[in-house]
Amino acid sequence: PPPLLEPLFPPQPGASPGFAERVRQHKVRLEWVRAEAAGLRGAVRVLNLAYEKAVSVRYTLNRWASCAEVPAAYQPGGPGDGLTDRFAFFLPLGAAAAAAEPTLEFAVRYRVAGAEYWDNNEGANYRLRGRQRVPPAPGPPQDPDSSAWIHFI
Q1: Confidence (pLDDT) at 151
Q2: C-alpha span between 68 and 29 (Å, rounded)
Q3: CB atoms within 10 A of CB 120
Q4: Which residues contact 35 (CB under 8 A, 6 or more apart)?
Q5: Staple 3 to which of 69, 94, 112, 130, CB 3.0 to 4.6 Å?
Q6: Is residue 74 part of a domain?
Q7: pLDDT reported for residue 96
Q8: What is the DSSP letter of 22?
Q9: What is the DSSP string of 41-97?
Q10: Rounded to the nearest 5°, which phi and psi values hold at 98?
Q11: Where are the transmembrane segments (predicted)?
Q12: Contact at 8 Å (CB) between 14 and 42?
């Protein structure tokens, strides 16, 4: 099985106290991420500074020797606070994540009204470490009730 990516940061920053204030202050913040078999899915919250905006995620699997960038898609019916918008992204890792223990790093870019804002986890980048999944133990399937006593009268 492919390795499981384990975030080295809280995977749901949007659930932490003061998240809305951090979005207002920094203009862009990662809301949550979830590792999946084919890649990494997540959401970003941005301060609604103008109608036209672009959000993307820049990422690497080799400590920035090379990188890729994917656009994030606007999510209609987002937070409903009138101040922020939500964008969703998917980082397709495919065969690159099949390395023994891959490390994924990423940062979020928000471009709006001629300005550019980044969320790079306070300069540390968002990092996820690959961990091999433990395959099920070989042998016959174990019946959960196999150790139960059966008494016939």
Answers
A1: 47
A2: 20
A3: 15
A4: 4, 5, 6, 7, 128
A5: 130
A6: yes
A7: 59
A8: H
A9: EEEEEEE---S-EEEEEEEESSTTSS-EEEEPEE-TT---SSSEEEEEEEEE-GGGG
A10: -80, 0
A11: none
A12: no
